[in-house]
Amino acid sequence: MLLKKTFLVLAALLMTDFVLAKENPMKKLSMNVELNSGYEMRRTQERASRVFDKQKLADTIQLNSGFNMPILGLGTWTLTGGTCENAVYAALKSGYRLIDTAKYYGNESEVGNAIRRAIKDGICKREEIFVTTKLVPWSNSPDKDIDDSLQKLGLSYIDLVLLHQHGSASGDDAVYKAMIRGVKDGKIRSIGISNFYTEKTVSHFINDFEIPPAVIQNENHLKYQNNSLRDWASKKGIYIESYYPFGGRGNTKEHLQNPAVLEIARAHGKSAAQIIVRWHLQAGYIAIPGSSNPAHIAENFDVWDFELTENEIKKLSSLDTKRRYENW
Predict the structure, then answer these.
(1) Angle between helices 169-184 and 142-153 (to 10 degrees)
(2) 96 catalytic residue (yes or no)
(3) Distances (CA, A) of 80 to 20, 101, 112, 212
């Protein structure tokens, strides 16, 4: 009789846990993680969601705007039409929650289509996705550009809007002021700048406007790390986001076939691309590698189950030649 009662109690407890698990499929465990660069990031561990069969890790940082941003996303520069839509959909299905686009890319509608497909298919919810777009500095109507991006993306708000690059001083200021108005109107959550590489040029946006940049998106890779700007910006509460994490089209071979990268890849049983992505994250950057290949997209995101050692970080950081590939 005692054995039977014990069995019934255990069965009841197991059933309770099962019901709670069903009611909370996205249970989260959080902890602060100190990275090699000294940055502290917020790590969120998501358990057995309706999408994933195994545990996935998604790291985010808290921006100076108060909103959280994933540190790994998909870049969509040069992706157009169905290729772009399918790439973004594949990224969301693989676990990405950061998608980067721009008005200049001409693919905001395709990005929006992919997001709606993913939401409809139960892959994610809107509030889980962080969408970035950018405004050109030569626009005569940046306020209308914001509304146009919202319409093309099919969103009620954009998570991050960046001034795409330096134009004229008056043009830059006009766009930045429009982005601030967008924040106040609830159309934009966070703002930032792109292709600004020095303390002097960035300081203008910190000192002369009521809302400072939350993110600076620049060309950053093993050959051009710009550590001085990263370290200075971090003290101002600003994060650096790396586009071209593999060096950009036409330069990836130099990075993916680097002997130091390949040696570290063999040590971890990972690909060269995964080692480079992991270096960006541990060095304190946000990274947005671009690809239209679903297999490569998934591979670039599969970097949460290992960490580079301090010596490996130093070895990769020593590859810096201060060489940029672009001039914008």
Answers:
(1) 50
(2) no
(3) 43, 11, 12, 32
pLDDT digits (tens, 9 = 90+) for 172-224: 999 999 999 999 999 999 999 999 999 999 999 999 999 999 999 999 999 99
Residue 113 sits at φ, ψ, to 5 deg, of -60, -45
Catalytic residue among 89, 105, 176, 244: 105
Strands 28-34 and 40-46: antiparallel
Computed on alpha carbons and rounded to an integer, the radius of gyration of the chain in Å comes to: 21
Please, what is the Cα angle at 56 between 54 and 61, to 5 degrees?
170
Q: Determine the pLDDT at residue 44.
A: 36
Are the C-beta atoms of 75 and 243 separated by less than 8 Å? Answer: yes
Put residue 259 in one of left, alpha, beta given phi > 0 → left and psi -120 to 50 → alpha: alpha
pLDDT digits (tens, 9 = 90+) for 308-320: 999 999 999 999 9
Q: Which is nearest to 278 in space by CA: 313, 325, 230?
A: 313
290 neighbors 251 (Cβ within 8 angstroms): no
Cα–Cα distance between 100 and 65 in angstroms, integer?
18
pTM for this model (two decimals)? 0.84
